[in-house]
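Blinded run. Sample ID left blank on purpose so nobody reads anything into the name before looking at the predicted structure. Input follows.
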Amino acid sequence: MATLAETKTDDPVALVESLARKGRAAQRMLAAMPSDAKAAALMQAAAALREDAPAILAANAKDIEAGEARGLSSAMLDRLRLDNARLEGIASAVEAVAQLPDPVGDVIDESERPNGLKMSRVRVPIGTIGIIYESRPNVTADAAALCVRAGNAALLRGGSEAVHSNRAIHAALARGLGAAGVSPEVVQLIPTQDRAAVGAMLKAAGLIDMIVPRGGKGLVERVQNDARVPVLAHLDGICHTYVHSAADPAMAKEIVVNAKMRRTGICGALETLLVDADFPNASELVGALVDAGCEVRGDARIQKLDGRIIPAIDNDWDTEYLEAVASVAMVDGIEEAMAHIARHSSSHTEAIITSDKGAAERFLAEVDSAIVMHNASTQFADGGEFGLGAEIGIATGRLHARGPVALEGLTTYKWQVRGSGQARP
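Blinded prediction complete.
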């Protein structure tokens, strides 16, 4: 396999075509491997991540230093930063994916026609998947593991913020997969930060079977506008929590503060809080957010609750802050709460806090987002928390896969037809 230094990157179109062809060839071999062999290869990859921890953390330190010099926000730096615990989490996630049931070969359904033809739909890998992502280096490992487990090749293009981290993680993964007899070309990292390489990926129809963008609105919009390859989109996470009039005050406070402040830079973080006008503890609830270090931008009624609240402007209701900032509005009942969500949500994750089961079931049924929750923090919007091992992204559209996309979302199906000599009349 060519090293980064040996790979010519002056022609992005030729580069992407070459890597994609190598990936497709390797994917055909991977797709024929037994499930146990794929799992063993991922266990080796996880071990390589642990063995290479000093090199990966040293590479990450370079990215952090460069990010600080460039003035990256605290949220972006938090997404970028690795330490021993986070790196162990990355390796553990790869192991968790290895231990998940392999969807490839599953029979979705089967039937027999009156003429005796036996029909079955069987899960198969999608093929070669291009993942275009920004600052989070853990995506390199998560995407690689999920693609390999589901029998796909991965062509990765990470952001410039994490270039050293991504290369170190990729090198460890490639070494581990190779040691287990899997071609390292099953998982390839685009060896240039030239933006033209992204354009080449988007136009590589016939070589790349699906593109998954993970990043800010600008990246996702560019991918959707320019792609000639099917796109599994993850829009920004404008996540809402609605505190209903029948919410338990202590529960509401704990969930809301956690949903906003546990990690402000993740896509499942609360961005807008909706408080029912009949909720009796609104002042204490909003005050708890401010006390936790959150800047609260409120509408006129919310501002009256606490002198530390600043006025919200129209744009706040459509903003993914990814910082310790939240917009808060008071609403007159569940109808108004759901109407606000319908106008401003990015269809990612919404939650209701209430002890009224009827209100909860109505919210879960009528709010049309990829994930809807009752009495839980939106920070649980994560593939690992859903028991999926990891995720390649949270799809906010309505086609193919929705919510955390893991192994099943990285497969398609084919029809297998078994006959006994039938000819169509």
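Unblinding after everyone has recorded impressions. The chain is about 40% helix and 20% strand.
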